[in-house]
Specification:
The chain is an alpha/beta fold. It has helices at residues 36-51, 75-97, 108-114, 117-121, 137-145, 160-163, 169-175, 196-199, 208-220, 248-256, 276-284, 301-306, 313-326, 345-358, 375-378, 385-409; strands at residues 26-32, 54-56, 65-70, 103-107, 127-129, 150-152, 178-182, 184-185, 204-205, 225-229, 237-239, 245-247, 263-267, 291-293, 331-338, 362-367, 414-422, 428-432, 438-442, 451-459, 464-468. The protein is built from 16 helices and 21 strands. Helix 14 (345-358) links the parallel strand 15 and strand 16 (362-367). It starts with 25 loop residues before the first strand and ends with a strand. Bound molecules: 5'-deoxyadenosine and iron/sulfur cluster.
């Protein structure tokens, strides 16, 4: 049968895809800042808005609604919102002159942390919505359209995920062969530098059935690689299908049974929540990719204590040894903060030593940024900016050297690559290595969604070049 007007990928669409939706009459432009969870949240907000008649656009000038999904983790991230709002003010005025509305919404962690203050500082903002209330977006917008200013930052008592609509299958297909899936949100650890427990609330795990159903939908739409997300993802736990209490390790084994899902990842983890079962998953589950982001923040016991990380440097190194014993080709990644209050040169040297000892494949490092409301911001002995700058430079030079060394060690090796998308240059496609590096191959090497064997020929700045093996 010739299905000329239906995309091939729509064959077999789930029943709910056939529900007639209101024709999209308005346009929404969403800009995402910060972490992967915000990327996921932006998608889910877009899905909720699609039901409400909003089509996504990449052109801010034609948007009836502009949503900024914001990040509050460091001051620089939070301040970006206000400079963006400055630019939007002119666009909104231009549209008003043409008799067109442009609602402006601030979502995400800045919304949660600053609430009504955002509207006071930037009166052009029409609505402020925190990360726990996205499912209420359509109702909030209806009020905003009638001219009311809305601040919706109460922690929802209902389960947001249960109320958020699932995207249409065609939309999932459009999003590609890799996907994020939030399984856990919030944090109860209260590291003294961190705003997350205040902006994302306390730790909540999504139920197994909800996660499995979402992963199945993704797989059904051609997704090959799923990254499970949580601020403390390895603290995830839930009642399994066998009525036993599951941890993340068990969940990963369950998800690996879903046909089509070839690769699993998870991020971000806390060293204290790496249990035996999760380490065993790294040993026994081929679908679990050999890459682990395990932030340690500092190599100094004194600073780790002041940060309330509740472990010592030696505990972290022992843990790394156990993980490497389970999976010897695992690539390690981490986060570091330099210049936490009270950090001396000796403390910083301890961090450098830990980095030498671990040998990271990649890592993120930041200057400490005092965040309002966190204990760290109140501490004496704040480190001068110039000292932070100098330490960050030294740390980043070392981390970059290790990253390049890791890339170079792969040259000549044959590895699996998931082909993800067309390359930036004609004739190329971009894949992803098991260790998360982009892999540039000839476009004829395979189709998007294929996992192919390639030989690494050379390294780029942050990528690998490869040919079919
Ligand atoms: N200043 C600098 N870096 C921070 N991070 C979290 N809070 C701060 C802060 N106040 C870093 C940590 C964390 C990563 C997501 O951001 O390294 O792991
Ligand atoms: Fe922030 Fe992570 Fe510490 Fe939680 S565990 S407070 S999210 S750094």
């Amino acid at each position: 049968m010739e299905l000329n007007t239906i995309e091939r990928d729509d064959i077999g669409a789930a029943a709910e895809d056939l529900v007639v939706l209101p024709a999209a009459t308005r346009k929404v432009f969403v800009k995402t800042y910060g972490c992967q969870m915000n990327v996921y949240d932006s998608q889910r907000m877009t899905d909720a808005l699609a039901i409400d008649g909003y089509a996504a656009t990449d052109a801010i000038g034609e948007a009836d609604l502009v949503l900024l999904n914001t990040c509050h983790i460091r001051e620089k991230a939070a301040e970006k919102v206000y400079s963006e709002l400055g630019r939007i003010r002119e666009l909104k005025a231009e549209r008003a002159k043409a008799g067109r509305e442009m609602l402006v919404g601030v979502a995400g962690c800045v919304a949660q942390a600053e609430g009504a203050e955002i509207i006071r500082r930037s009166p052009l903002v029409d609505l402020v919505i925190g990360p726990q209330t996205y499912h209420r977006l359509p109702g909030v917008l209806a009020k905003a359209r009638s001219g009311e200013k809305i601040v919706e930052t109460d922690y929802a008592v209902e389960d947001k995920f249960e109320h958020l609509p699932q995207p249409k299958r065609a939309e999932l297909i459009r999003r590609g062969v890799t996907a994020f899936l939030t399984v856990q949100e919030g944090c109860d650890k209260f590291c003294t530098f961190c705003v997350v427990p205040y902006t994302r609330g306390s730790e909540v795990s999504r139920p197994v059935a909800q996660i499995v159903a979402e992963a199945e939908r993704l797989a059904d739409a051609g997704v090959r690689e799923v990254t499970l997300l949580g601020q403390n993802v390895n603290a995830w736990h839930g009642r399994g299908e066998d009525s036993e209490e599951w941890g993340l390790g068990r969940l990963l084994f369950r998800l690996a049974e879903i046909p089509g899902l070839a690769r699993l990842r998870y991020t971000t983890s806390h060293p204290r929540d790496m249990d035996d079962e999760l380490i065993a998953a790294h040993r026994d589950l081929p679908a679990l990719m050999p890459y682990l982001h395990l932030p340690v923040q500092s190599g100094s016991d004194r600073i780790l204590k002041a940060m309330n990380r509740r472990h010592m440097a030696k505990d972290y190194l022992t843990l790394i040894d156990r993980i490497r014993a389970a999976r010897n080709d695992i690539a390690l990644s981490g986060d570091f903060i330099v210049g936490f209050p009270g950090e001396t040169e000796a403390d910083f040297e301890a961090t450098m030593q830990l980095v030498e000892d671990v040998n990271y494949a990649s890592a993120f490092s930041f200057k400490y940024s005092p965040r309002p409301g966190t204990p760290g911001a109140e501490m004496n002995d704040q480190v001068p900016e110039a000292v932070k700058d100098e330490r960050l430079q030294r740390l980043q030079a070392l981390l970059l050297k290790q990253q390049q060394h890791f890339g170079a060690s792969l040259v000549g090796k044959t590895i699996d690559t998931l082909i993800e998308k067309p390359g930036r240059q004609a004739g190329q496609k971009v894949g992803r290595s098991p260790w998360l590096q982009p892999v540039i191959v000839d476009e004829k090497a395979g189709e998007i969604g294929d996992i192919i064997r390639v030989r690494i020929t050379k390294t780029g700045y942050n990528s690998l070049f490869a040919e079919l093996a």
